[in-house]
Design goal:
The protein is built from eleven helices and eleven strands. The protein is α+β, with helices and mostly antiparallel strands and about 280 residues long. The relative contact order is 0.12. The radius of gyration is 21 Å and the shape is flat. It folds into two domains: about 200 residues, Reverse transcriptase/Diguanylate cyclase domain (Alpha-Beta Plaits), CATH 3.30.70; about 60 residues, no CATH class. The two termini are about 40 Å apart. This is Reverse transcriptase domain-containing protein.
Amino acid sequence: MKLDAKDIDFLVRGSANYKFFKIKDRPIQEPKARLQAVHLRVHRLLSRVAVPAYLHSAVKGKSYLSNALAHDASQPLIKVDIKKFFASVPEDAVVRFLRSDCKCRSDVARLFASMLVCNGKIATGSSASPILAYYAFKSMFDQIATLAGEHGLTFTCYVDDMTLSGPTATNAMVIKVRAIIAKFGLKSHKVRRFNASSPKVVTGVCIMPDGIRVPQKLHLAISRNFQERSTETDTKKREKITASLQGRLDAAGRIDAKFKSRADTFRASTKKAQPSVP
């Protein structure tokens, strides 16, 4: 991808290059097509760089599923998230990453960073944000990984969803992890601790000693979508429910083969039901 001075001048115009909307009351800032192409290029380049084994997001060959499977379901487990992580990554953190890790000149780093943030923060709808957020706070994640290693724990990270499992996954360990996060100016939340014998949901996957399961929450959402779809008469609303249901069936299918068959059958039935275009 080549950008001339005119392109750069256009792409650094801040919020003018973004679409703003909400998904379930969550504010989304999505780069428009030209800027998203730049963000996608950044994502692809950074994804080629070798990262620590604990990272499972924005890494080729890894996913939320590999993140869950990394943990032993028979061990105690801790989960910690970072509150509003993307909205907590400031432009200055992106500049520091570009200067220190990417060895950009200060003026280049500042100019480049202005194309990667919206209103001073990384955008929630950008393809580059997951990997940028990681590098902006890599030192923090590395410190938590070191702490986990010192105590014989398995540590994984999927965006801001951190999981630690092993015999020493105790309340005392939760306090230590939260202290590291606070040291970097971030707030932790959604803290959960599971006993060794408890079913554990990690990045949307229920892990059990005898294998993985589709979480009850996803089961209920699928059932609710089927019911809503059967009674909805408005065409546009029904299409929206259908898309949501297909996405949930596909997600369940990546965990359980029975749901994959169900997802494929549903996709084929809805495609067949669509009116043909003359």
